[in-house]
Design a protein that fits this description.
Keywords: Membrane, Transmembrane, Transmembrane helix
Protein name: TLC domain-containing protein
Pfam family, one: TRAM_LAG1_CLN8
Order of helices and strands: HHEEHHHHHHHH
Organism: Fistulifera solaris (Oleaginous diatom)
Number of helices: 10
InterPro entries: TLC-dom (IPR006634), TLCD (IPR050846)
Strand order of the largest sheet: 1-2
Length: about 325
């Protein structure tokens, strides 16, 4: 027992000597000091911080559809003379070229399905009585092809237009819309009447493509470019008022009557023709909204322009 005790005592002394001599490994003095964990903010504090930051940021301005086709002053909310100046953009230019080419057969075939003697000379005739439908099959095929291809194009290359989501929704609604006259032949004149708006769409695109310089169409000039821009603008505004502001609201009542008559025929109001009423109402509201925005911006521009002239005349002593 004494031997074991003495051995333990010698081992303890040996360890003590090694520690004092520095033979034991020491921790490096260059190691970074331990930093206490930072307090974790609660979710409520983080949400308050985010809310304060969002309130401090200026609100984002919602872009108007008029800015896609007009020179628009967002601060004064007025439409300036001329059209926006467009830079070279292959995706947009190729899509515009496709629309200008493909809309022509749609417009021509639509015109060929109407009896224009009845429209121009007959008295007290309804729109449906002027419809012949001789070229309806080809008219429907070309129209469906155009909208499907354009829908796929915009979905794959959304940069070719400035409002891809709006146009995609419009094309989907239109494709659904034209299925009704395809399935019910008595409503095919409705398709012809509604698609007359593509004439205005063609002038809208041509107004941009043929005037990339952004020239004002009402500037007095006798050059060929000026005459071309003037004619396109005149036809654009004429078809806008005649089709979007007059024809579309007028068609609302016949469409409603067609739905009621078809409901009596099939025995229920819940039928496919019922979609005509809300869809056409949405198109009418959109047309009226765009027309109102355009008109009010023009009115603000004319008022501001008149006040500037008045102030300048006063400064000149007149």
């Amino acid at each position: 027992m004494d031997v074991v005790r003495s051995q333990r005592e010698m081992a303890r002394r040996k360890r003590t000597v090694e520690i004092h001599d520095g033979t034991m490994p020491q921790e490096s003095s260059s190691s970074p000091p331990k930093v206490p964990n930072a307090p974790v903010k609660s979710r409520k504090a983080l949400s308050i911080l985010r809310r304060r930051r969002s309130n401090s940021e200026p609100p984002r301005r919602r872009k108007r559809l008029l800015e896609d086709h007009y020179q628009f002053d967002p601060e004064r909310r007025i439409v300036l003379p001329g059209v926006p100046r467009y830079e070279q953009d292959f995706a947009r230019d190729a899509h515009d070229c496709f629309n200008l080419i493909m809309l022509l057969p749609v417009i021509v075939l639509d015109i060929m399905n109407w009896n224009w003697d009845t429209i121009l000379y007959a008295k007290r005739t309804s729109i449906a009585e002027a419809w012949t439908g001789e070229w309806f099959d080809l008219f429907f095929q070309v129209t469906a092809f155009y909208f499907v291809v354009d829908l796929i194009w915009i979905s794959l290359v959304p940069s070719c237009v400035k409002s891809p989501a709006t146009i995609i929704q419009h094309h989907l609604a239109t494709i659904l819309y034209i299925l009704i006259p395809y399935l019910h032949s008595e409503f095919r004149w409705c398709m012809g009447a509604c698609l007359s708006v593509e004439l205005n769409t063609w002038f809208l695109i041509a107004r941009r493509v043929l005037n990339k310089q952004g020239l004002s169409p009402w500037t007095i000039s006798l050059s060929f470019l000026s005459i071309r821009v003037k004619l396109i603008s005149i036809f654009f505004y004429t078809t806008w008022i005649g089709i979007r502001c007059i024809l579309y609201p007028v068609l609302m009542m016949p469409f409603y009557q067609n739905w009621i008559q078809h409901s009596l025929k099939v025995g229920t109001k819940w039928n496919l023709v019922m979609l005509c009423v809300p869809l056409h109402a949405c198109f009418c509201l959109l047309n009226l909204k765009w027309s109102y925005d355009l008109l009010m911006s023009k009115v603000r521009y004319w008022r501001r322009k008149g006040s500037v002239k008045y102030d300048s005349s006063i400064s000149k002593g007149l």
